[in-house]
Design goal:
Blueprint (H helix, E strand, L loop, with lengths): L1 E2 L4 E5 L2 E4 H23 L7 H24 L1 H6 L14 H16 L7 H25 L14 E3 L6 E2 L2 H22 L8 H17 L17 H17 L18
Parallel strand pairs: 1-4
Antiparallel strand pairs: 2-3, 4-5
């Protein structure tokens, strides 16, 4: 397949609407709908949805931007600190986005005793998995985060990069994340909103970052350093996430607090 799609959908003077931005916005739009269903399912105040969206959005953007700057090219950004705020030039890192969300949700949950931190994380990973898939599709439209050259039948030539057929690693990741999303939402619905604390978060961390670890083997390395290392920066960053996920899966459940109601709403 020959891929040469313009990353801009349309331009209106200095303003351009891009495929990546569309998929990013769609990730938050669909995520908002899923979280609203969860809140209705568990009888949580829907007035909290807007501040929760605010925390999630800014946690993702700030974390992903800082992650890109300091995980992948720290020397450049430390020498040119003003470049850090130039998000429009591109450069977001999913590991940094995950850390940003963890911090943002902690800040959000501090004054909401009916939404404990671990309870919140267990539910937010459901839309996060779907959002990750949509963002990777946005990367595909941008012809970025490309794979190594390949001779498989489904290899794609990213004409904006070169004329070599390559692994479409963005689609590999998007597919993996969709399967994780379906797994998480199936478990959530099957257990009628009463999942063991830490189960969904643990599954998310193990499955998402294990998939990321192995797909990294087929990616062109993005970091400006560490080419000689056996693992890429993305793989090194995935390992602590996987370990944390395994620990959560074996976490002994505490006595359940009455923070979850019976699920009466469809999705």
């Amino acid at each position: 397949m020959y891929w040469n799609v313009n990353p801009e959908i349309l331009s209106l003077g200095p303003i351009a609407i891009r495929w990546y931005g569309l998929f990013f916005a769609l990730a938050f739009l669909l995520g908002f709908g899923i979280v609203r269903w969860i809140f209705r399912c568990e009888s949580k105040a829907e007035r909290d949805l807007e501040p929760l969206l605010f925390y999630m959005l800014f946690g993702t953007l700030i974390g992903a931007r800082l992650g890109h700057c300091f995980f992948y090219d720290p020397l450049y950004y430390l020498s040119n600190p003003l470049e850090i705020i130039k998000v429009w030039k591109g450069g977001l890192a999913s590991h940094g986005g995950a850390i940003g969300v963890f911090v943002a949700l902690y800040l959000y949950s501090r004054n909401r005793p009916d939404q404990p931190y671990l309870w919140l994380l267990d539910r937010m990973v459901i839309p996060a998995a779907l959002g990750g898939a949509l963002i990777r599709i946005g990367n595909f439209f941008n012809s970025e985060i490309i794979g190594v050259p390949a001779d498989v039948a489904w290899a794609i030539v990213f004409a904006k990069v070169d004329l070599l057929p390559r692994h479409p690693v963005q689609l590999y990741e998007a597919t993996a994340y969709v399967f994780v999303f379906l797994l998480l939402i199936h478990i959530y619905r099957h257990q009628e909103c009463k999942v063991k604390p830490g189960l969904l978060l643990g599954l998310y961390l193990v499955t998402i970052f294990t998939a990321r670890f192995f797909i990294e083997l087929l990616k062109i390395r993005q970091a400006a350093y560490g080419i000689e290392l056996p693992f890429s920066v993305g793989q090194w960053l995935s390992l602590p996430m996987i370990i944390a996920g395994v620990m959560l899966l074996f976490l002994k459940p505490e006595k359940r607090r009455n923070v979850c109601g019976h699920c009466e709403h469809g999705v």
